[in-house]
Every structure is written in structure tokens, then in C-alpha cells.
Amino acid sequence: MTVKQAEKVYRSSCGMCHGGCGVLVHTQDGRMTRVEGDPDSPLSKGDLCAKGLASLQHVYNPARIQHPLIRTGERGEGKWKNISWDEALDAIAAKINKIREEYGNEAIAIGQGTGRHHFAFTIRFANALGTPNWCAPGQAQCFLPRVTASKLTFGDLIVCDYYGKTKPACILVWGHNPVHTNPDGEMGFRFLDALKSGSKVITVDPRLSETAAISDLWLQIRPGTDAALALSMIKVIIDENLYDHRFVSSWTVGFEELRERVRNCTPQWAEPITWIPAGKIVQAARMFATTKPACLEWGVALEQTPNCLQNLRALAVLTALTGDIDIPGGNIFGMHALLHFPTGYDRLAPEVHDRRLGADRFKLLSGREALVPSAHAPTVFRAMITGEPYPVKAFLIFGNNALLTYANPREVRQALLALDLLVVTDLYMTPTAEMADIVLPAASWLEVNLVRGYPLRAENVVLVQQKIAQVGEARQDQEIMIDLARRLELPWGTESLEAIMNDQLDPLGVDFEQMKEKGFVSVPQKYLKYQDSGFATPSGKVELYSSVLDRLGYDPLPAYAELPESPVSEPELYKEYPLILTTGTKSPVFFHSEGRQIPYLREIEADPLVDINPETAEKYGIEEGNWIWIETLRGKIRQKARLTNGIDPRVIHTPHGWWFPEQSSPDHGLWQSNANMLTRSGPPYDPAMGTCQLRALLCKIYAEE
Predict the structure, then answer these.
(1) Which domain holds residue 642?
(2) Is the pLDDT at 327 greater than 90, yes or no?
(3) Omega before 684 within 30 of 0, i.e. cis
(4) Which one of 423, 482, 624, 666 has the minimum C-beta count within 10 Å?
(5) Which of 284, 305, 331 is the last residue of a domain?
(6) What is the Cα–Cα distance from 607 to 655, expressed in whole angstroms?
(7) What is the distance between the alpha carbons of residues 313 and 334, in angstroms, rounded to a whole number?
(8) With a threshold of 0.85, does the pTM exceed it?
(9) What's the pLDDT tens digit per position in 177-206?
């Protein structure tokens, strides 16, 4: 008779997205049996989404890569054999050293995906290797532009204060859908808490999202015209004397220059540009400026066009005028992290920084002024193909499905084919992994030890993840990088993971073993910090007129420009492609291209659904549930029609990240429904951030025969 062991419960934090929801992991006889929300978590307070609840189907998924693999056929042919970790890492190190000797360190590119547990380690590994060329899809397209615009204006990132006793009285949600999906995990739950307390909500979105549907005011904007709307709202607030005079006079610079900039940006000017009635613009401006305290909840939709920095600067300036800065229930600044993790940028010589691909053009993405300097991804891929301005011969990818997450995947595939070495570290055989020379099996979030800092909330929180399971020979990304650093005999970056974590935790007076028991440490928010030390800008004040942008040769004031591909800028093309395509619908059950192997999640969302107005569908002979073709100048894909009156008849909206792991071919349906088949990877780019146009593109649709 087998006697069952007593159930054990471990405290950890979920890693199914880059949020930090607290979880309790139940185990029986050495196997995990259940994952549930931790009610004591200072961030999530017991809430957990479908992704977190499906974690066991992720960890124990039969499709997991369990051993290192080496390619035995042609690249992309899907032929592999198992090898040992020593064989894999020795082969990688030997090839890297050969490329470094022949072409230099910059010929090695390092890639990664979203801001997960290995984000800072990847940067650290690249810097230790001596290459300036690490990149990620989100650097120019997601979150970093928001941080950059906020830093230029306020000296730090602004976030909504949902966490204190005072909730926001008004929330301006712009290009974001926190009711339905939020990649910062618990923030969506805290947004709903604020609504329950009576917060008014203004939502700016081209479609009637789940958030827009419960808002007090919905502004249905033409995709890509956000700066025009923000400038017209600024105009109303200034003209009607609704701005916070004391805050503006005491704590801002550039107000008169701003007043002059928006002199002609009336709601009547903005109406034909944005498709929003002038009266609604006035109503929104008044509500946001007079309902105290108010905060801005901005999203990734603002960051995926070539005018992204100006979009975001306009919103930052709009927020500053209300004076609801660093106060309870307003826009607050996350405190500096309790955890210090040196990434080693300071160890790169200035001339190495200057050789970073994109540094000569995109100074706030790739230059020395950038917050987190990274290479410009389209330029990296073209260097792989052309060897210009210098060759890139190797690409080491940690946790990124590049063929799904970068614009123009045909060009990305061409770049990967040109490499001498492609290494992919992942949990599954993605279309990108199928292109590799060597594939390394990555550990899931339940198979890793690490500490995670969350300084961008109303509390400065340090969470722990602890290794509870082991699947096959999967290893933690950080351990792989440390092992490679040792084999490459790098001058630094070879310390053990345990030593690094204990060093991080030392200021808290605990080590990692003690932290596993505690689960988290938090420090309450302090408000009005600027009254003691000013703002962390060159002037010490909120910079409506940015001195940094001025010094770098960019427009120091927010401005509106029509997108390069739009009905206005390309009227002849608009005749052939008569609809506006906006991409990137976020799903509550998937995280970008992740999760399509997980049965529970695919039950909820089996197919990619494109939102179409019934009037438009009737015009093209399309019915609910039909598979249709969506086509732009770059290519075409098929998705399933979902008819909704919540989208303008002139606009359609597609999800991104779709592939079909159940298909046996090595591309796993990569080319069928991938929204990035439709997007632009070429210029013009955002002048400072290098952002390409992923949204507000011109398209046409037709029924599948």
C-alpha cells in the first residue's frame, strides 16, 4: 500500500506574463497539483487570471522541449537530435569565439522577448560579451517609449495609484483595455477595484472594448491620431482656465511655449482628423481636468506608430496640466527598486556604445541617452542580410518567438537564414526555434529561483519565485547565460545565481533561503516626493518643453503628424485598400504568441478573431464566423470574422501572435494568421525611438472562397 505524502504549499509569484501576481502552489508526492491566488499578496490580493490558473498545463505540457537539440537537416527543415548540455554549450561557445575573432564582438546579437525574469540578465550577458547589439520587439514598440516620454517630462514613469486608500476619481484610459487584459497582471484587478469605488472613466479607443463599454465617456478615435486629440484637449484646458495654476507656475517649465504650440489645435480642428465630435473632446477635457484626483492609464497602442514619442509626450503634458502628480489617487512615481542589479552598460567603452546598430539615428532607443540602450531591430535584421553597416553573424535568442513578434516576418526569416549561428532558448518548438542550429530547453516560472522587484506600483515590492518542479533537463535562462559566460571566459558575469540573488537581497537583511519563506517584502508609497527634491529632470521641474529633446535635435514640444500610411497621406492607395487596419488585440488568455499549446486556454479562444462592423461585413459578403482574407501592401492572412457594432465601419481590428503549434510542419502555421505579415518594418520610423508602423495601416478584406 502506497502512503501519500502530506500536501505542501509553496508561496511564489506567477510568471505567465510579466506581472507579479502572488500564488500558492500546492504539491502532493513531489508533483504540483494546483495553483491559486495568494490572498496575502500586496499586489494581486488573491486574484489570478486564466493564464495563471492554467499553469500546470504549461509546466507539464507534453510539447515541452526537455533536452538540448542540434539541427541535423537544413535550417528550418525540422530535423533534430538530442545532445548533452556540455555538447550544446561547448559548441555554442566555440562558434561564438570564432565569430568574435573574425568579425568582432558586435557581430553577435542577443535577443529576448518581454520583460520577464531574465530581462536584466540578458542585457548583462550582452554587455559582458562586449556586444552593444541586444534587442527585443518591445524596446521601440512597447513600454520603453512610455517610460521615455514620462522620464523626459517628469523625470520618472507615472502610473495610476490604485493601491492606496484614496482611489482615482477619474481615470483616462488611452489605448488600453485593463478590464479585459493587462500584461502587468494585477493592475487590471486593481483598476476594477477603483471602478467599484466610483471612479469615472474616459476611454479613448477605436473599438468598443470591454473597458470602453463600462466607461462614462468613450471617444472612438481614428487609429493613429492620438496626438491630435491630446493637443486639442490641452487647448481646451488652457483656454478654459482649467489647469492647476499653482502647480503649473511652481513646478513646470515651457507653459507659454506650449500655449503657443496648441494655439490652432481647437476641437474643431481635431474633429475631422480624429473622427471625434468637437463637443465630446470638450466634454472629455473638462471631465479630466476638473474631477479630482485624476490619472492617466495609457497603453501599448500609443507606442506602435512612427509618431509614438509625440503621442506619449502629448499625453504626459496633458496629465501634468491637471496637477494630479504624485498625490493619492493621481499619477504617482514608482519608487526606486529595492533590488540593485548591475547590467554593465558602464563597462562598455563609449566607442562600443556608438557602434550599436541604430545609435546614429535613434538616440533615445540606441544612443547613450537611451534609458535602456538597445539595438534597432529592423537595422539588426538588415545587417544580418546585407552585412551593412557591418556583419551580424550570430543571434542568441532567450524567450522570444521572433518570427511572430517582429514586423515583416519574411524579412526576419531571410535574416535568420543568413546567420552562421542561431541559438534559441525556449520551452516549446516555436517557428523561430525550428530555424535554429541549437535549441536549449528553458525552465518555466515554476522551475526557477529568483527575486523580482516591482518598483512601479504604489508599493515597492520584492517578490520571490522558487523552484518547485523540474521537467526533463530544462534550465533557467540565467544559469545558461552564466554557464556560457564561464565557457567564453568573459571578464565578468560569471558569478553564481545564488550569489547574485543574495547580493541583491543584502540591503533587505535577508538571503534567498529566508526570502522563500517570506514570499515578498513591500515598502508603502510616499507621496509628493518632488516637494523635497524636485523632479528628476534637468530643470528639476516638469518639462512641458523638453530640454533633453531640444539638446538632441528633436521637437521639444508635442506635435501631431499624419502617419506615412493613412487615408490622408496615401489617398490613391486608400482607394485600393479602403479600410484602416489596427492590430494587436490583447487576449486575456494568451500573452503575445504564448499559450497556444495550453488546452484550457485554447478552449476559451480557439481561433484568431478579426473585429468587423456588420455594415462592412455585408458590403463584402462576410458573415459571422467566416474565415476571411485581410491584405495590405506587405501580404495577406486569414482570420475568422467577428461582427460587432463596436467598431467603425471604416476600421477592422486583428489580434497578433497567432500560430498553430498543433500543425506538424516546422512553420506551425506561421504564415496563416500572423498579423505581422501585414505590418511595416521599413521607414519612416519615429525619429527618436525608431518605431515602425504596426497599427493604422491600410488594408482590404474579402471572403475566403
Answers:
(1) 571-703
(2) yes
(3) yes
(4) 624
(5) 331
(6) 10
(7) 19
(8) yes
(9) 998 876 566 778 889 889 999 999 999 999
